[in-house]
Amino acid sequence: MILVGGEALFDLVLQDGVDALHGHPGGGPFNAARTIGRLEQPVAYLGRLSTDRFGERLHAMLAEDGVDLRCIVHTDDPTTLAVAEVDREGVARYRFYERGTAAPGLTPEAALAVLPDGVRFVHVGTLGLALEPIATALEAVVERLAGSALIAVDPNCRPWVISDPDAYQTRMRRVLSHSHVLKVSEEDLAYLEPDLPAVEGVRALLEHGPTVGLLTRGPNGAVVITRTAEVPVPAPRAKVVDTIGAGDAFGGGFLGWWSERGLGPDALAKIDTVVEATRFACLVAARTCSRPGASPPYRHELD
Fold it and tell me: Crossing angle of helices 246-260/28-38, nearest 10°?
């Protein structure tokens, strides 16, 4: 079982030069869970969903993609919303409307109460590590499962929702101390390690605990980084519609590949294996960019 913890929300997308808003289900962890489900690997989503119509749709879409629903906590709070402004190149910029909404309200007690048995992988990140009480809840989950599961962290930093940067950085270091895989973008590094070149910034973060760093670089693919080596992985060609959910699909693709082969934390020491998984993750991300919204590919589309 892969457990993906964090927010589910709705993206309201405003295309450049178009007045109409188009709604898409979203949230980094929600997207990652759906990716893994479409890759036909056992996955459960841990998060708080509203009983409103947005929440009902999020719940139904997880079910449609084969995601285990037993770790969902339901609430009457409204669904969290994000407005994504997409430019002419298809690149999205986000603003979040999260105060008093469903996603941030997951408590440590509620999260720990619904943890299933047999979790082999944990994936956390995005708003889930920036907002309270969900950040404390996910940290508690990571601490509970760190001795028995491979922990993957995707900060996916949203600086404008981080009210206390020092507290956020301190929590990130604590979570990284339990983790095995760190996936970061160049934008993440501009916030987390602004004074270092990208590769050195990843290595600075690896000092807190992870075995391997996966640096995503958009159309330039990714770089697999360890404390002593770095291997670039090119992105496959793709006609980009938008980049919504691409990074989440990358993370889900990496864990899906790892799970499909029955690998665990020890295999991360084999850089050639990590590179192969990263190549697959780049393919999953590219296919996601080729259609609107966060719609990851199905396993049969990748053969």
Answer: 40
By C-alpha distance, which of 166, 260, 181, 256 is closest to 213? 181
The answer, as to whether pTM is greater than 0.90, is yes
CA distance 27 to 220: 24
- Using alpha carbons only, what angle is made at residue 31 by residues 237 and 274, rounded to the nearest 5 degrees? 60
The strand pair at 9-15 and 81-86 is best described as parallel
What distance in Å separates the CA atoms of residue 206 and residue 221, rounded to the nearest whole number?
Answer: 20
pLDDT tens per residue across span 67-98: 999 999 999 999 999 887 777 776 767 788 89
Pairing of strands 81-86, 92-97: antiparallel
Distance CA 303, CA 300 (A): 6
DSSP string, 148-190: TSEEEEE----GGG-S-HHHHHHHHHHHHTT-SEEEEEHHHHH
Contact 92, 81 (CB under 8 A): no
Q: How far apart are the first and last CA of the chain?
A: 23
Q: Tokens in use for 219?
A: 């159309």
Q: Which residue, 236, 233, 246, 235, is CA-closest to 289?
A: 246
Q: Is 214 exposed, middle or buried (0-12, 13-18, 19+ CB in 10 A)?
A: buried
The two three-digit tokens of residue 79, written as one number: 């669904």
Q: Which residues is 22 bridged to in the sheet?
A: 13
71, 76, 77, 82: CA torsion to nearest 10? 70
| Phi, psi (rounded to 5 degrees) for 301 | -80, -5
Cβ atoms of 285 and 256 closer than 8 Å? no
Q: In Å, how far are 201, 288, 293 from 186, measured between CA atoms?
A: 9, 19, 21
Provide the residue type at 258 as one letter: W
Q: What is the pLDDT of residues 189-221, one digit of tens each?
A: 999 999 999 999 999 999 999 999 999 998 999
